């Protein structure tokens, strides 16, 4: 009966997982179609963006599943369940491990091969519309550099282990043989872990740039709302009248046949560009003012405020917990050479206090972890959307509804893939013991002065990927401090800024008049 009940619960879990996959695919399709440009959309880039975004979301959902499975194999009293013998436990662990292998291998494939190839293919297509074979060759040439980097990372992780016995009398061949034996014993885990950790460091930089800002900007934008379309339209009309009057005054100088000076000609050109932009804004504002979507958003305005308050509470909970966790590492860890890793928790933080309480009511603790993970993803999307894609001080692309270029969508999905890799370590920083063992308890028996552990806890598979190399852990530690600092700066900036325009980022001076046709579909 117990076996049947367990099988039924596992089957239900797999059905829910399948429904979650379907929901993720639908969301990714809607999200990509919402932001991609209609004039520049391509089938291959659209499929690539949807697939990469789906992999990012599925990978983020694997951590709660991992924690649930190691917790599900034990009873509340610390003993293993009847069906969870050594073989079954090993099968479950291997299944989760293979899941990480598969998803992380797909991430490597996307980051180092698929996305770069599609990106460079369309970059070449814009420059040379003639020869498809030439475009493919050029894209492969640039992609080869990314593949080389991936191969180097895998080789470093596979054949440069951290602990090699120091035998002075060993020959070079014995040392090489030892490297291959260690690689075989780890089943490639070390190589994949090193490659993924390298990408996670890049994801950490992306999270510091985009997620930290998105965590402050998204809630405050929901709370403050946007300016009224009617008020903006009135201001825009006044701006059009002022520009037209200025143009008339300048052009009146040449009514008697005298040519305009070079300074006046430059001024006229600037004013005409400004006038075109204002007229495009007028058309957008008129469409928004009449659209049913605007009326619906006004009706749910109280709900947006509630969501904004909820998101800012989650952000503050996240930041305070991260600060206390990092402070604990600074005070009680062995230092830089150990990667600032500590065993146990010396300073409690709100999340560490909340999770044990929620464990008493299944599945509230998993809902909280899943909520934090998904919040991390959606705030990353908000940060990228608000800031655009930058390379240091150079702005490469803007993310705008209905006007995002295929290359920008590919960049967005790659950044999200990297941020998702960093999410697991961020959650570990907040609740290390929970991420390692879930809600497991161990049974102890005290005899005289000795304590005997009757059952050991099972470590989550995600932990194996997180702490193979101490120097990556040290980098994550310093990255957490930078994340907190950027969040606080973003919070101050977001509080000082006024309400966003109702057409924020929708109209730029470099847009063509044809771009208005792309956006009109959203405002009907």
UniProtKB/TrEMBL annotation:
Predominant subcellular localization, coarse grouping: membrane
Keywords of this entry: Cobalamin, Cobalt, Coiled coil, Lysosome, Membrane, Transmembrane, Transmembrane helix, Transport
Transmembrane segments: 12-32, 44-73, 98-122, 142-162, 189-213, 305-324, 366-396, 408-428, 475-493
Membrane topology reported for the UniProt record: Multi-pass membrane protein
GO MF assignments: cobalamin binding
Annotated GO biological process: protein localization to lysosome
GO CC terms of this entry: lysosomal membrane
Compartment annotation: Lysosome membrane
Matching InterPro entries: LMBD1_LysCbl_Transport, LMBR1-like_membr_prot
Origin superkingdom: Eukaryota
Keyword Transcription regulation found: no
Coiled-coil ranges per UniProt: 261-288
Similarity section: Belongs to the LIMR family. LMBRD1 subfamily.
Protein name per Swiss-Prot or TrEMBL: Lysosomal cobalamin transport escort protein LMBD1
Gene, per the UniProt record: Lmbrd1
């Amino acid at each position: 009966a117990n076996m049947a009940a367990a099988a039924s619960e596992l089957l239900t879990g797999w059905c829910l997982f399948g429904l979650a996959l379907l929901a993720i695919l639908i969301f990714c399709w809607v999200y990509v179609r919402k932001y991609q440009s209609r004039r520049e959309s391509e089938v291959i880039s659209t499929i690539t963006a949807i697939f990469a975004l789906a992999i990012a979301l599925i990978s983020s959902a694997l951590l709660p599943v991992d924690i649930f499975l190691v917790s599900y194999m034990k009873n509340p009293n610390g003993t293993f369940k009847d069906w969870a013998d050594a073989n079954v436990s090993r099968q479950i662990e291997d299944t989760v491990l293979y899941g990480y292998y598969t998803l992380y291998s797909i991430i490597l494939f996307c980051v180092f091969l698929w996305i770069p190839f599609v990106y460079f293919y369309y970059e070449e297509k814009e420059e040379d519309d003639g020869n498809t074979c030439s475009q493919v060759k050029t894209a492969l040439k640039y992609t080869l550099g990314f593949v080389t980097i991936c191969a180097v990372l895998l080789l470093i992780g596979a054949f440069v282990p951290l602990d090699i016995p120091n035998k002075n009398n060993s020959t070079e061949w014995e040392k090489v043989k030892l490297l291959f034996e260690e690689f075989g014993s780890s089943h490639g885990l070390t190589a994949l872990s090193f490659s993924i950790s390298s990408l996670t460091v890049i994801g950490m930089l992306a999270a510091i740039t985009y997620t930290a800002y998105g965590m402050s900007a998204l809630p405050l934008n929901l709370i403050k709302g946007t300016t009224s379309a009617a008020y903006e339209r009135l201001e825009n009309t006044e701006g059009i009248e002022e520009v037209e009057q200025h143009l008339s005054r300048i052009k009146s100088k040449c009514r008697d046949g005298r040519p305009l000076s070079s300074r006046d000609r430059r001024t006229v050109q600037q004013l005409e560009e400004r006038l075109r932009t204002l007229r495009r804004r007028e058309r957008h504002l008129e469409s928004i003012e009449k659209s049913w979507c605007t009326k619906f958003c006004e009706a749910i305005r109280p709900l947006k405020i509630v969501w904004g308050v909820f998101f800012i509470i989650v952000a503050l909970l996240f930041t305070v917990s991260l600060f206390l966790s990092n402070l604990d590492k600074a005070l009680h860890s062995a230092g830089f050479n150990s990667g600032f890793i500590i065993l146990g928790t010396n300073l409690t933080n709100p999340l560490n206090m909340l999770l044990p309480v929620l464990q008493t009511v299944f599945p509230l603790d998993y809902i909280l972890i899943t909520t934090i993970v998904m919040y991390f993803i959606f705030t990353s999307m908000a940060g990228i959307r608000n800031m655009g894609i930058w390379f240091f001080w150079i702005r490469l692309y803007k993310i705008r509804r209905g006007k995002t270029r295929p290359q920008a969508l590919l960049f967005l999905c790659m950044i999200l893939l990297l941020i998702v890799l960093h999410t697991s370590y961020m959650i570990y920083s907040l609740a290390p013991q929970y991420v390692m063992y879930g809600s497991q308890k161990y049974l102890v028996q005290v005899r005289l002065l000795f304590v005997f552990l009757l059952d050991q806890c099972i470590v989550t598979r995600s932990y194996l990927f997180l702490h193979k190399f101490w120097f990556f852990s040290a980098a994550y530690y310093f990255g957490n401090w930078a994340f907190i600092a950027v969040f606080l700066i973003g919070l101050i900036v977001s509080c000082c800024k006024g309400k966003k325009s109702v057409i924020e980022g929708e109209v730029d001076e470099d847009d063509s008049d044809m771009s208005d046709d792309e956006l009109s579909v959203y405002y009907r």
